[in-house]
Amino acid sequence: MTTTSMNGSATAAGGSSSAATAAGAGAREVVARSPLPTRQRRPGLAAVGLIVVLGMGAVFGWLYTTAGEKTPVVVMAREVPVGQVIERADLSTVDVAGSVTAIAGANLTSAVGQRAAVGLIPGTLLQRGMLTSGDPIPAGQVQVGVALKAGQLPADGVTAGDTVAALRLGATAPGAEQGTGSAAAAPVVLVDAATVYSVRADPTQTGGSLVTLVVTAAQGLAIAEASSTGNAVLIKVPSS
Q: How far is 65 from 11, CA to CA, in rounded Å?
């Protein structure tokens, strides 16, 4: 039989409390979980990544500095016709970026005393192939100067290395009136293919030019005579 005394009630209440405590402890045991596994650090991969970053930074830094790096090279400061000896005053230096084919600025003096193998104009980056130690005028030929007015050479002029034909304009026949076309002799071809050696402005006449040609000795005499009378004319022709 169940005792209904106060002590018995206390005993039953105490039993219920013990059961609740046991149930709570069990619940806590169910809720408790094992700790999550931590990630393992790999110091080797971190070091490799750092090296890659530093390497890329060094490469980009090198590209940036070399992109703006300039090198001094030799440049023409004055015009030098083909065959002329190059003087120190004809040369200068300029800083250029990138890879170029030109004489280094440190070797400028090596070009002094050489001859121009081609006509050189101011601003030209000087190359070894543009220089020669020998006289470019072939044996048996001479240089002859021609003084020309505007209209006695092409409107665009001629430059060193061009091929021209030299003519003598027809002179007025003796006793004929000036300006009579029928009284003038026909133009005479003095040389059909002469090489222009140099061209300079004539300081004695406006629009005039002083042209030096390379021709044979006999042709040179005829051209000089025509030039002295103002009857010489140059016509640019294709190079053979």
A: 93
Q: Which residues pair with 120 in a beta bridge?
A: 80
Q: How far is CA 195 from CA 137, 142, 167, in A?
A: 10, 11, 14
Q: Which residue has the tokens 């030019």?
A: 209
CA distance 232 to 224: 9
Q: Which two tokens stand for residue 10?
A: 């206390």
List pLDDT tens digits, range 19-72. Answer: 445 455 544 554 555 565 555 556 666 666 667 666 676 666 666 555 567 889
Q: How far apart are CA 223 and CA 213, in angstroms?
A: 9
d(CA 119, CA 228): 26
CB atoms within 10 A of CB 106: 12
Sequence-distant (6+) residues with CB within 8 A of 79 are 119, 120, 121, 122
DSSP string, 119-160: -B-TTPBP-GGGEESS--SPTTEEEEEEEE-TTSS-TT---T
Cβ atoms within 10 Å of 175's Cβ, excluding its own: 6
Structure pTM? Answer: 0.49
Q: Determine the Cα–Cα distance for residues 130 and 201; give it in Å rounded to an integer.
A: 24
Residues with Cβ < 8 Å from 154, sequence gap 6 or more?
234, 235, 236
Strand, helix or coil for residue 199:
strand
- Return all residues near 94 (Cβ < 8 A) that are at least 6 apart: 72, 73, 75, 125
Please tell me whether residue 104 adopts helix, strand or coil conformation: strand
Gap between the Cα atoms of 166 and 225, Å rounded: 12
